[in-house]
Design a protein that fits this description.
Chains A, B: Keywords: Magnesium, Metal-binding, Molybdenum, Molybdenum cofactor biosynthesis, Transferase. The structure is a homodimer of 413-residue chains. Chain A is of the alpha/beta class and 413 residues long. Helix content of chain A is 18%, strand content 30%. Chain A contains 7 helices and 24 strands.
Chain lengths: 413, 413
């Protein structure tokens, strides 16, 4: 299995992968489950907002013409002829020198054309009738929220492909989306390979380590909006691995394996790809870590062979698996958000390949600054815990200095 | 119910609320459910990483002393006496002029003190034995990952109070946390008040609007890491509301109501607080929107009375409910992250109160810039959908200009 491998640029590798994307179906889910899901149709207003002319204040609805001459020193007394709570309607016409007590959000009664705030009035009773003293003049249409002034019926408020946040939930509720159209989450199979792996609950043994990559990948899948399905660990045994992977391929949308893609004698995946008739899209990428990342395809199904090295596995996931999930979910934005930042520490290692250094960015006085989260030994899981971005350092240079501008890829923590 | 209300500053309101915080208990959950939960104990290494001296490469373990004179032009032939796959152990001592084939991650056999990479060797067979030709000299301890060099046994890797991300999941797996100690999520009751409210699946009626606040609050609760429990809508009826709220208070950690806290005739919450013996911590805050936000306490339980206005409700939640959830979860950081940003548009309205404008920030050439997401009419739900921050504009000024530096509060989208 010691085939020659030709590294391809990261951008080319991403392109080959996204050529195989498929979009998930639409499903309808209850509004209470919709937060963080991806909207599958445009969100449209089924009515005007406000749905009728309404009062923005607690106060009195009146005819502005009745207040023309009114001032602090020339108050006027008007009769209170009704009372509208929010949710109720006043059916009589408001006549000259009449007012109707109105609550915030209640519909303006017929005949009235303005609202005076409660604070600008005083009330009194006389002979079983209620009166209000007003001390200011109101303009025609003053203090009225007009039908449709916020949102017109039929307008598109949120585009499909958007992640549903609490503000969008409020819009969905307002427009009667008790069931919300969202894109189905892809189900992605996860398999760890390597006879050196112990499960998390097993005690350590000489020569072995606990499987951490599969759990990390499952968390990365969740963060990306997919449903991970764990199929356990495979020993370095060709026929057993072949059988398992063929079986898993039938049950899920994509498969991610970790380990088994280097050039060692026990790295079986290349042989497995060959035997199940998968087309290898690439098996070497010009980057560090993760250069041995391999992706193969059978029909429209992708089989990701991520490195067994935790950092390489992590980077390979975010660069090559995440965009496929974003495509599947039909998200508006694909892949990690990229920004410019100032490097906060020297990074002296030169490299012929692009480097994706695990880093942490912060905002200092409104400016993004980023620094590596640890020594960049590729076997160090430690630095992943603090990372909230990758710092991309293009290859072929003499290293980078504190203060240099760099591109960072946000992990979405 | 037209009591005098004295507005207090936002910071004072937050202080009064956090005085009532309580911390959630620790619960143990399976590792596969731990992503995004809050670590309740420090994460400690139960063993060294690597747990033994191991090979970082596929290659041959050898005695460096055997390669002292070796160069490209003065190669040396050594005998291959064994084969160590990852996960297995070589038990014989490696003697002079012997090498052992070794996989990435496998333990260095006794007697060997360096590893030569596979690429720097060639092999051949002769008389049934296997030999390797080496063409470079190795240093003592070259290409060995030493026991404990990444992480020493007993060291604290992640502090309690940290949000568990995929990198931390990898650490938890490595150190055998099949069950993970996390802080229990608080259960928070949500009640909408107001006779004008229709449920989401009801058709519109004159004078009524669909309840959007309760659903928005439930999504905000989820985003903050709490479990929302919805108790439906209450009409503006004192005895019914009193009974319901008293009942709900017994079942949850905190209660959030929306609506019913203004000074209108149907705003019953002040009377309810009085009748159930709740101490009102404040009922007016010097801010816009959300000035009528009310918080009351019975024993150690808080009762939040958020405004019925969607924007005011949203802001009141993030400023006053979210810190209590963060405290309950014992998070390392409490409340919204605050940063400095450049205002990208004029905001001309002056205000005696602090204003929290719904905004959207972006990074432009490494610099945070923020602008309001819509007209700032407080009844506009629309602008919440795009908001990813609040832009804080201190009161008492003549408005703000494009280019001004402002404080923004990140919503964590």
């Amino acid at each position: 299995m010691l085939n020659e491998r030709n590294p391809i640029p990261v951008s080319e590798a991403v392109k080959r992968v996204t050529g195989f994307y498929k979009k998930g179906e639409t499903e309808y889910i209850p509004l209470t489950n919709a937060h963080q899901r991806i909207l599958a149709d445009d969100l449209k207003a089924d009515h005007d907002v406000p749905p009728f002319d309404r009062s923005p204040y607690d106060g009195y609805a009146l005819r502005s013409a009745d207040t023309t001459e009114v001032t602090e020193h020339n108050p006027k007394i008007l009769e209170v002829v009704g009372h509208i709570g929010a949710g109720s309607v006043h059916h009589e016409h408001v006549a000259n020198n009449q007012v109707v007590r109105i609550m915030t959000g209640a519909p303006i009664p017929d005949g009235a054309d303005a609202v005076i705030m409660l604070e600008d009035t005083t009330t009194f009773e006389q002979d079983g009738r209620t009166y209000v003293t007003v001390r200011k003049s109101l303009q025609h249409q003053q203090n009225i929220s007009f039908q449709g002034e916020d949102v017109g019926e039929g307008s598109v408020l949120v585009n499909k492909g958007t992640v549903i946040n609490p503000g969008i939930v409020a819009l969905l509720a307002t427009f009667g989306y008790a069931q919300v159209p969202v894109t189905k989450k892809p189900v992605i199979g996860v398999i760890a390979t390597g006879s050196e792996l112990l499960e998390v609950d097993q005690p350590l043994e000489q020569g072995k380590i606990r499987n951490s990559n599969a759990y990390m990948i499952m968390a990365q899948l969740e963060r990306a909006g997919a449903i991970p399905k764990y199929y356990g660990q495979l020993p370095d045994d060709l026929s057993e691995s072949l059988e398992k992977i063929s079986e898993v391929m039938k049950e899920v949308d994509f498969v991610v394996t970790t380990g088994g893609v280097s050039v060692g004698d026990y790295d079986l995946l290349p042989e497995i790809y060959h035997q199940i008739g998968a087309e290898v899209l690439f098996n070497k990428v010009a980057m560090r870590p993760g250069s041995v990342t391999t992706v193969a395809a059978i029909d429209d199904r992708l089989l990701y062979g991520l490195s067994g090295n935790p950092s390489a596995c992590y980077v390979g996931f975010e660069l090559f698996v995440r965009p496929i999930i974003d495509h599947y979910l039909a998200k508006e934005t694909i892949g990690m958000q990229q920004e410019q930042a100032i490097l906060a520490a020297d990074f002296s290692k030169a490299n012929p390949f692009d480097r994706f250094v695990r880093g942490r960015y912060q905002v200092k006085n409104g400016q993004l600054v980023a620094e590596p989260t640890g020594k960049d030994k590729s076997n160090m899981v430690h630095s992943l815990a603090k990372a909230n971005c990758f710092i991309q350092l293009p290859g072929g240079t003499e290293g980078y200095k504190k203060g240099d501008q760099v591109t960072i890829h946000l992990l979405g923590e």
